[in-house]
Design a protein that fits this description.
heterodimer, A: 115 residues, mainly beta, 7-stranded mixed beta sheet, 0% helix, globular, B: mainly beta, 5-stranded antiparallel beta sheet
């Protein structure tokens, strides 16, 4: 078990381009979360999966954002038509069935810079 | 709505001195509470958690926190700071209206002087 893996670690893209990030959770964890962290702020919740089902989406997740978790394993987060305001660290976390009670294991994040 | 307030965006201590990072929460019922640490360009690592058992919680790296319901506080302490403790620390509370949401404070950056 190597923890939660995120790829890529850094992404620089031009405004208007689409980007996709990948998260591989801890293999026995059935819950997966995406958070966004901007400079000087704490992480903000984006969305949550239990197995392959997306159970919650934050109002921060505009229609340009989409997340999937096919087969309940890895997850992808896609941002279409990126804007400069999308520049942030995107964090993935996973947990077991106890969910929030146990706390989450976070990955190292993908830092997105939109130029 | 629940919220977390971390007093002091930046705290500086000398090596060997007491570390005290403050966290106050707002919740209508006792929540689950967490402290995470983040090193530069890294994700968040769980330091400790309060889940309605003992009010004094011990975590990794010599840190501990005390849940005080009357003060709605969950301050993080360490008796003696080490240079390796320099990082950003986040307090978080479970969102009662959500199954997947932790609400984080804005963080406190800890600097340790030699």
């Amino acid at each position: 078990d190597t923890g939660v893996s995120q790829d890529p670690r850094h992404k620089i893209t031009k405004r208007g381009q689409n980007v996709t990030f990948r998260c591989d959770p801890i293999s026995e964890h059935n819950r997966l979360y995406w958070y966004r962290q901007t400079l000087g702020q704490g992480p903000e919740f984006l969305t949550y999966f239990q197995n392959e089902a997306q159970l919650e989406k934050s109002r921060l997740l505009s229609d340009r954002f989409s997340a999937e978790r096919p087969k309940g394993s890895f997850s992808t987060l896609e941002i279409q038509r990126t804007e400069q305001g999308d520049s942030a660290m995107y964090l993935c976390a996973s947990s077991s069935g106890q969910g929030v009670r146990n706390g989450y294991t976070f990955g190292s994040g993908t830092r997105l810079t939109v130029v | 709505a629940q919220s977390v307030t971390q007093l002091g965006s930046h705290v500086s201590v000398s090596e060997g001195a007491l570390v005290l990072l403050r966290c106050n929460y707002s919740s209508s019922v006792p929540p689950y509470l967490f402290w995470y640490v983040q090193y530069p360009n890294q994700g968040l690592q769980l330091l400790l958690k309060y889940t309605s058992a003992a009010t004094l919680v011990k975590g990794i790296n010599g840190f501990e926190a005390e849940f005080k319901k009357s003060e709605t506080s969950f301050h993080l302490t360490k008796p003696s700071a080490h240079m390796s403790d320099a990082a950003e620390y986040f307090c978080a509370v479970s969102d009662l209206g959500s199954q997947g949401n932790l609400i984080f404070g804005k963080g406190t950056k800890l600097s340790v002087k030699p």
